[in-house]
Write a structure and sequence with these properties.
Length: 291
């Protein structure tokens, strides 16, 4: 029989914070404000997991908590570096409320060339009954198929969203397990693109105006992670990486029990890594986060 240590990997000297869905996400997602809150907290939760597993920030910047028995990653607000990165998401609140945010992306690159992009995790937004997704620049991560999947996705109820959330996080976990480690000297930044209704030169707090979003090599491997829906927001997670192994299969049935930590039976992380301007980007994540 598996021991408790084999079932759940805890961080050193840490007991995961147990909580129900309602402690992190709103319950009634049919209400627009709750849907907005869910969308923001979802990308923040998933982004913390990505940054943790890809080793961009020190392990002390993260904590683990359970959401309805699913172990997830969160930023450790008591650590200044984590608090600074976490606050970058707060600037997206207005962009989501106003329907301005089209895509939020975590972009990885080898310093010092911030446009030599080798990996991206993207969150694409659709609002309400939006019948078409306008993309200002074909950045290479989306396909006609993925765009149609996003447009056709429908909100059913909160229970269904909970299931889709768990499924998407587990697929994200499997995707990252199929990636080679990032090379030393890597960094990451957040990039944002906007809908047609966003004012010219609109920039969320914590982001800089940028004439570029990101572009990917045509031969980069891609993965569609999943779609989650609130009552008024649909968010699709896509990934692309030159470090993604050829034999990855995100649709392969997971061997984890649905109530088991998605971090079970893993080895410890190794080699953590020290309009006119219609897009926005954050500073490099590691540049000011040495705390």
């Amino acid at each position: 029989m598996a021991t408790k240590e084999q079932i759940v990997e805890h961080r050193e000297s840490e007991i995961p914070i147990a909580s129900q869905w309602k402690a992190t996400f709103p319950v009634d997602l049919e209400i627009e404000k709750n849907s907005e809150m869910f969308a923001l907290r979802y990308i923040k939760c998933a982004s913390a997991f990505i940054l943790d597993r890809r080793g961009i920030l020190d392990e002390k910047c993260f904590k683990t908590r359970t959401i309805d028995k699913l172990l997830v990653t969160a930023f450790q607000s008591s650590v200044p570096a984590a608090k600074r990165v976490s606050s970058t998401f707060d600037g997206l609140r207005d962009a989501i409320q106003q329907g301005y945010l089209r895509e939020f992306a975590i972009v990885f690159y080898k310093k010092p060339n911030e446009e030599d992009i080798n990996e991206v995790f993207a969150f694409r937004f659709a609002y309400g009954d939006e019948g078409e997704i306008f993309v200002s620049l074909n950045n290479g991560i989306d396909t006609n198929e993925s765009s149609q999947e996003l447009l056709q996705a429908k909100f059913v109820d909160t229970d269904n969203t909970k299931q889709m959330f768990a499924s998407t996080i587990k697929k994200l976990h499997r995707c990252i397990k199929k990636m080679e480690p990032l090379p030393q000297g890597s960094d990451a930044s957040f990039r944002v693109s906007y809908t047609e209704k966003a004012p010219k030169d609109y920039t969320p707090e914590g982001y800089l105006l940028s004439p570029m979003f990101y572009t990917l090599n045509q031969d980069i491997r891609k993965a569609s992670i999943g779609i989650v829906c609130g009552g008024h927001h649909k968010i699709q997670m896509l990934a692309a990486s030159q470090y993604l192994k050829q034999d990855f299969d995100l649709d392969k049935t997971t061997t984890l029990n649905p109530n088991m930590s998605i971090m079970a039976n893993q080895s410890k992380r190794k080699g953590r890594i020290s309009r006119d301007s219609p897009y926005g980007l954050s500073q490099g994540i590691t540049k000011k986060n040495k705390d």
